[in-house]
Specification:
The protein is an all-beta fold. The chain folds into two domains: 50 residues, SH3 type barrels, CATH 2.30.30.40; 52 residues, no CATH class. Helices cover 0% and strands 47% of the residues. The protein has a five-stranded antiparallel beta sheet with strand order 11-10-9-1-12, with no helix packed on it. A hairpin with a 4-residue loop joins strand 10 and strand 11. The two termini are 16 Å apart.
Length: 117
């Protein structure tokens, strides 16, 4: 795992979904298709009814279903332009970040400034 990197939000970001999908290893999901704007993501529905984009690499897909190979949350982080964040990991154009208040979630890498994004 790469070390955490300090970054700055270049632009503000607001979450796209109010009740993001959360999955655990072994969860069975319905799969509906890949994202043409964000390669590497697939739209899924959890048995609890929540839907969202899930990294394709953490699923074993067969037909219209998939099995989760890792725990995952689609939670996005609200950010303000100029806000300092810690980038903890990246996935297909998005970064999992932590704010100064300790909140964590996904932010598009294009909304961040750093020497590595």
């Amino acid at each position: 795992m790469k070390p955490a990197i300090e970054v700055t939000a270049r632009t503000a970001h607001e979450p796209s979904y109010g009740n993001p999908i959360v999955i655990r290893v072994g969860d069975l999901l319905e799969t509906f298709g890949k994202d043409s704007n964000w390669p590497g993501w697939i739209w899924c529905r959890h048995p609890d009814g929540r839907s969202g984009w899930v990294p394709e690499r953490i699923l074993r897909v067969s037909g219209s279903g998939g099995i989760a190979l890792e725990d995952y949350s689609a939670r996005e982080l609200s950010t303000n332009s100029g806000e300092r964040l810690v980038l903890l990991r990246t996935e297909s154009g998005w970064g999992w970040c932590r704010s100064a208040s300790g909140d964590e979630g996904w932010v598009p890498l294009g909304a961040l400034n750093s020497e590595t994004t």
